[in-house]
Amino acid sequence: RKEVEQDPGPFNVPEGATVAFNCTYSNSASQSFFWYRQDCRKEPKLLMSVYSSGNEDGRFTAQLNRASQYISLLIRDSKLSDSATYLCAVSFAETGNQFYFGTGTSLTVIP
Amino acid sequence: NAGVTQTPKFRVLKTGQSMTLLCAQDMNHEYMYWYRQDPGMGLRLIHYSVGEGTTAKGEVPDGYNVSRLKKQNFLLGLESAAPSQTSVYFCASMRGGWYEQYFGPGTRLTVT
After folding, report:
1. In whole angstroms, what is the distance from residue A61 CA to residue A83 CA?
2. Interface residue of B4, B38, B99, B102 to substitute, partner A, most A CBs within 10 Å
3. Higher-confidence residue: B55 or A95?
4. pLDDT (0 to 100) of residue A98
């Protein structure tokens, strides 16, 4: 069983739409949670960390549900420039600073 | 400030050949990581290091070796390349106590 699972998509949404991605993790001891953005043939870049209370950064909102073991990313008012692959990542307390990544969810924002 | 750099950017190897991938960071980060990324598999951790002179195995360490003789460099070696090692390899570094990883641009390796 994979440590982290994501729906690979693709998600094709019109400009201005709201889109949400979920990511489930299997280890209840997971400690830290993140969303990364990866453009085609580029390296991943941290989009935002996910805090227990949820957090927002402009049009992006990340939430954590420990009871159901998932994290989510909500993008409001989608822009063409949001087209990318979004990777979730978790780290576990017992493995120190190892990170486990999901396979990524592909988003295309259509004019 | 170059961040994280990787050498080479592209490489084609024949089965059984060996090579070393170099990762360098100029941010004085304690942690360094090697990942491979394959279609449908996501990023998988090969080896990592929590400081100069230390290394540890990740999810998929078989067929790879690493060394961290200097804090700023993390080397990934393939002793006898196999077609299954065809992948994109990313290096990342992270400051101790923080959780943001900075990735290098990747090395695209093809083993024929």
Report:
1. 17
2. B99
3. B55
4. 85
User: Sorting pLDDT into bands at 50, 70 and 90, what band is A53?
Assistant: confident
Whether chain B has a CB inside 8 Å of the CB on A97: the answer is: yes
Look at residue A81 and give its three-state secondary structure.
helix
Is B28:B102 a contact under the CB 8 Å cutoff? no
DSSP letter for A54, please.
-
Residue of A nearest to B95 (CA): A97
What tokens were used for B52?
A: 């100069």
Contact partners, residue B8, CB within 8 Å, separation at least 6: B21, B107
DSSP letters, A60-79, are: EEEEEETTTTEEEEEE-S--
Asked if A84 and A108 touch (Cβ cutoff 8 Å), the reply is no
**Segment A101-110 mean pLDDT:** 95
- Closest by CA to A108, choosing from A8, A13, A7, A39, is A13
